Amino acid sequence: MNTRSGFVHRTAVSTAAALALLAAGCGATTGGDAGGEASVEEGFNVGLLLPESKTARYEKFDKPYFEEALKELCENCTLSYQNADQETAKQQAQADAMLTEGIDVMVLDAVDAESAASIVSNAKSQGVPVVAYDRLAEGGVDYYVSFDNKTVGKTQGEALLEALEEENTVNDGEVVVIHGAPTDPNAADFKAGVMEVLKGHVDIGAEYDTPDWSPDKAQEQMEGAITSVGADDIVGVYSANDGMAAGIVAGLKSAGVEDLPPITGQDAEIAGIQRIISGEQYMTVYKAIRPEAEVAAGMAVAAATGEEYKGDDEKGLTEVEDGSGETVKAVLLEPIAVTEENVEDTVVSDGFYSIEEICTDRYASTDFCKTANGEQ
Ligand code: BGC
Questions:
Q1: Same domain? 248 vs 310
Q2: Could you identify the atom of ligand 1 that is nearest to the CA of residue 51?
Q3: Mean pLDDT of the residues in the chain
Q4: Are 153 and 300 within one domain?
Q5: In the chain, at which end, N or C, are there fewer CB atoms within 10 A of the end residue's CB?
Q6: Cα distance between the two ends of the chain
Q7: Which of 213, 214, 244, 332 to mutate to test the pocket of ligand 1 (most atoms within 8 A of CB)?
C-alpha cells in the first residue's frame, strides 16, 4: 500500500545535508542531530511507516489522521506511506526505498523495535531524523509519541478484576491471559501493567504471548486454553487488543461456550465496540489516535526544520528510555477504559464513531442502540 501523493524530489537537499555532515566529521549522527534543513514554506517529504493491517487502527485512523495533521502544519509537504503487514524484512525494505527516494524525516511505527535500530541508524546516517510512532524503536530516535502503555495494561487488568468482582467469580475459576507480540515493546508494557494488577488476585490458568498480534493465533491459543483449563473453569479472558479479542470470541464460540466470560481489549475498534454493546466483550481501551497523530506530525515538522518540539500545556514533553538505554524526548497520552456504560461519552462524543456506524442493523436491538435511537 503505497499512497505517495504529489511527491517532490528533495533527495538532492537531503544528500547535500548528509555530505556536509560527513565532511564535518559527524556522519553517524545520534539523538537530535539529524535533519533540520527543510522549510515549511517550500515543503518537504515525510515518510510514514506503519506496522500492520490486521488491526484496524492503522489504515482507518493513524494514516489519514497523520496526513491531515501534516497538511495542517505544512501545506506544501508531501507524504510517502507504507504498511509492512507485520513483516520485519518488508519494513526494512520499505524504509530503505524511502531513504533512497528521498525523505526529510521518517515517522516509524516499528514491526520489531530491536531490528528497527538499523532503520534508525541508516536514516540518521543520511541526515534524516526519526520520530518513533506508538512503538519505541531502538537506535536513538529523535522523538517518541505514544500512550502511557503500562497504564493501558493496568486499565485492562483493573476492568477485568472489576467485572469478576461484579459477577462474584474471582475465586470460582481461572483467567486466561493472552498478551501481544513479543517484538513490540508496547506489548511488554501492557503485560507488565496487567500482571501487576492480576497477580495475587486471580488464578491464571494459561498465559501466552501472541506472535504478530495475530487474531488467528489468539483463537488457537484460546482453543488450547479451553482444552487445558476446561471451558467451565474459565471466568475471564485478558486479551491485549480488540483484534485478538475477535479470535478469542470465535475460539470460545467454536467450543460451544454460549455464556461468554468477561473479555478485555484495546483500540476501540468498531467491531470491539459492537461486541461490547452486544455483551460479547467486556471492555476496550480507547486511545485517541487523532492527538497522537497530531503530536507525531508536530514532532516530524520540528525535526525536519531544525526546530525543537516543545509539546503544549496539555501534551507536555517527558523522557523515556528505549530498549538500548538511550533517552528519548516523548509525549505519552492517557488511555481511557470503555465499557457499555461510557461508549457514548467517549468514542461517540469524541467523534471517533457515530451512532449510525455503531448501530448497524445487526446491533439495532441492543439496549445501547435502542436508547441511543430514543426507542427506550
Ligand atoms: C499498539 C496497539 C495495537 C497493537 C497491534 C500496539 O503497538 O499500541 O494499539 O493494537 O500494537 O498492532
A1: no
A2: 12
A3: 91
A4: no
A5: C
A6: 44
A7: 213
